[in-house]
Design brief:
The protein has 797 residues and is of the alpha+beta class. It is built from 24 helices and 26 strands. Strands 13, 17, 21, 22, 23, 24, 25 and 26 form an eight-stranded mixed sheet that branches. The longest helix is centred in the middle third of the chain and has 15 residues. InterPro entries: Papain-like_cys_pep_sf, Peptidase_C19_UCH, Ub_carboxyl-term_hydrolase, UBA, UBA-like_sf, Ubiquitinyl_hydrolase, UBP13_Znf-UBP_var, USP.
Amino acid sequence: MELLRSNLSRVQIPEPTHRIYKHECCLSFDTPRSEGGLFVDMNSFLAFGKDYVAWNHEKTGNPVYLHIKDTPKSVPEDRPLKKPTLLAIGVDGGFDNNETEYEESYSIVILPDFVSLPFPSVELPEKVRIAVDTVLSAVGAERREQVAAWAAEEKKASEHALTLQQLKSGIVIPPSGWKCAKCDKKENLWLNLTDGMILCGRKNWDGTGGNNHAVEHYKETSYPLAVKLGTITADLEAADVYSYPEDDSVLDPLLAQHLAHFGIDFSSMQKTEMTTAERELDQNTNFDWNRIQESGKELVPVFGPGYTGLVNLGNSCYLAATMQILFSTHSFISRYFSNQSLKLAFEMAPADPTLDLNMQLTKLGHGLLSGKYSVPVTEKDAATAEARQEGIPPRMFKSVVAAGHGEFSSMRQQDALDFFLHLLDKVERGNNTRPDLDPSRSFKFGVEEKILCSSGKVSYNKRDDCILSLNIPLQEATNKDELEAFNNQKAGKGLEENNMSTDDIVRPRVPLEACLATFASPEQIHDYYSTALKGKTTAIKTTGLTSFPDYLVLHMRKFVMDAGWVPKKLDVYIDVPDVIDISHMRSKGLQPGEELLPDAVPEEVMETAQPVANEEIVEQLVSMGFNQLHCQKAAINTSNVGVEEATNWLFSHMDDPDIDAPISHQASDVDQSSVDTLISFGFAEEVARKALKASGGDIEKATDWIFNNPNASVSDMDVSSSSSAQTPAQTGLPDGGGRYKLFGIVSHMGTSTHCGHYVAHILKEGRWVIFNDSKVGISTDPPKDMGYLYFFQRLEN
């Protein structure tokens, strides 16, 4: 006890502003349930596992720790099961997830000799007792920062239900045989509870669903409540009632009375339609989900180094799938595992290692690759009775990598591609003092665009990139005869695909080679200003690569516009071979006999280069139901390329905080810091100032302007002659042969990249392995033809 009293000055009583860690080690994934328990530093309130707490003592000198240890409780075999009352798992009233219950024990431990004192104890100094009680009663920082509730939101009673006025129209609704009053739809029908009109539901973004007649009727009449026909049964609470003014599914406490008004006897009705919630959940059983997750297959679980699952924190599968593949690359393995120990990373980290990206990447790398946490748990999977692992929760990593990012710091689903690019940017910045250690460079390559003017002169435009984003040319499908026969059969029988067995649906099959060829094929540029002709003309643009990266990432653009300008996800297979050769895609630079276009751009061109939206694009977007201002911004930010690009921009930026801000047309003076930023990108100051002037001072738009006006002026990225072009070695980019082997796939299931689910398949030790959050198993049927992102490793000669 005297030893503790002599160290009281190193004990703090937590303030409300303190971040208290007590559920997970800052350097590893040890928890109070680990064999050695968890040690909470009573000065910094950081937590450490048994193998790491001594490092903290060496670094800080803090000697007093609260030791927390969870011990499994014994469970009687005849424990009765509780009946669930809530559609949720692992919460009060929800389904019992059969998790082991634990009993917590505490003690005070003094380092370096691990002297242990019992807690609670009246013999402990009052300051220690108060400090420990405060720690134990506080909400842990881990859970405060990232709380994922896996429970359906409870429906509330509508404020319009008790005062609903029903018209005396004399309408009697039959028990079946319904049809929309304004079209031929016989499914997804809603009964307005005021006037008895039966109308179809909303049209989905992909063109399916109804024709919006029910919601249009509300806009015309303001009649607030509707019930979905086919969901009415004796269990009235399960009926799907929608409130248009509240824009949500609701409860109608007087639904029986409201139905009786139209002669409906709910007690005898049978359920024939899915509720809105059930339709959302139904995606779990569609073809994509079953195929990509290999549902129904006997997956053999696999354990050991490199086979550690990641716990889903709530819509974090995009992160899990991406990180599993990145930590299968030599560059990330060597940077954050093989060549960097946890102790070294901790010694280099600031006072709070939970805020250090290098520390948390190292922690994640060691967690995934050491095999320490990839062990079977005692309880088997309740659904499959197979051995399973708990996986590790990447909470601290997600918190630090998402810091300051409005989307990634939320609990919403995100685009795995966006996260991949965001992470590489963070990693590059984190290694800016040692670029030779930067693992993100293994994904970088140079892109060169050659523009051939009708004058015969050329310009060259270079940039660096980390992905090849590929359009999917459906016209290159290899099964056109089968597709035509299927479409004729479908039309002849009047069938819809959502009413057909997935095994009967024929989908286009497009070779990956065709997608790569489309990327490299010549493209016409209309209204191109030629400095040689001093006027607008049509130019030809071809794109090639100046270097080949160690790891090539291909992004498949599956979201397109159909003939009616309705955005949809392509239901298509991509035939991807195990080995590809992109040697033919290497650009050749300025060739003998080619003459560069003159550099200067007339001032009148600069004056007309202010950001102005193409009215035709805006009109088409507005006709699809988008806000006019949003459409103008979409057109401007995609350089008026086309409706498809603008629509993709809209879907990606709907939640931007400044989406409703007016379009900025700043004066010609530009901010010097913006100029400096563009100069740091490799552009000349003259070009940077012109671009910022033309784009209202917006750096992102200015960058786009430079790429769309490559002959604005000679800059560091322009090729003035074949001998002046920088080689990949001079730019620091990796380079080598053009043959690549497929080793990773990120697949996406769902109607949008911002919903649904992501899964990774990785080629490890000669076999494909599926990483589905915390589940890791041998893959028997990797969905090579259904990927969203494909990862290739360069084959050395």
